[in-house]
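Structural biology now treats backbone shape like a language. To illustrate, our science desk offers a sequence and the tokens encoding its fold:
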Amino acid sequence: MSNVVIGLIGTACLFGGILMGINVMVVLGLVGGIGLLALVGPTAATSLMSNVFFETTHSFHFSVIPLFLLMGFFAMRAGLGEDLFEATTKWLGGMKGGLAISTTMGAAAFGAASGSSVGTATVFTKLALPEMLDRGYDKSLASASIAIAGTLAVMIPPSALVVVYGILTDSSIGALLIAGFIPGIVFAAMLCVAIWITVARRPELAPTDTTTYTLREKIVALRLAGPLVLVIVAIVAGLYKGVFTPTEAGGVGATLTLLLALVRHRSLKAIQMNETLLETVRTTAMIFGILISALLFSKFLALSGLANVVGDFLTGMDAPVWMIVVLVAVIYLSLGMMMDAPALLAITLPITHPVMMDLGFDPIWFGVFVVLLVEIGAVTPPVGINCFVVQAASGGRVKLEDVFKGLIPFVLTGFLMLVLLYVFPQIALYLPSRM
């Protein structure tokens, strides 16, 4: 049996295990480990596996993941999302679809601090959805705008998912974090425009808020939301100017977010310090487990030669480059409906990354492109994890079909953003090129 056939069998077993409901981390590790045993024998396989475990758990660069997670959990436990929603509502609430636009901008800022798409969707469902429904907003528009706004969390730095991409592809984590800033802001603005156009065409979806606020009330609303935004800007500026490394940025962000939480609640008990630290450890362990298993699977694919065969086939196709990009996008959108983002990156990057590099694409650009694809998949039926999160957190006020029904303009906006990234790659590459 040839190595390529072993690789094909292993890949089939991987997807078969996922469809059977086996944990992605477990099936990745099993297929990778058993595959290595079949290819190189027990002695060499044991050596390879021990090296993967050591490199993953002892690398200084990996410490950025728990620090970014800690920053996000501090922001969520401290209730800083409430401050952002209050501020954006007072500044933007009077526009057409103002509450939905406020939610999008607030989620963009909070998501940058939390780095969690699911966490951001949960927080803003509890904060913004009741407010929108009570003021007569259409259920589909209200719930779908929150689901898509949650995806901004992994685009705007700092983002743990971008770090995962950097580790799996051996790309510059600092450059990747900076690269997501402009695309994240542009995508947030495009979502706001999509809301405005939707409401302008169908005013019955979102009654105009006639509540007015004085300039003093608007400025007061920035008392804690403003500092959180400044923390995010400081992290991005520090990375851009080389003042600190990504790991140091995570430490600075976690410390400053903790200080903001203490200012807001004035006690460690109120921010549930023990639970926050424990949740950070659990999530870090989950991500590290997926990374270790993914790297084992990646080595198995490389040694089997399957990755090279698939890569040579795709790059050797007599087809325009854009068609291959579309094919890659379809793969990510399809798989993104069925699994979480770290697992999806772990499974696909060993094949798609070399192909895109052979086609001449920049690894930093591809990182931004893939992260956006993964997050669009997170709201796309039939699964769309963010949609389930919004429905579950709504307390029964919206149905799953309500969320899916309202997503059409936002998913189309996501596709438009993908096209813009392809046609104008400097949207993602301008800031990294100036570092």
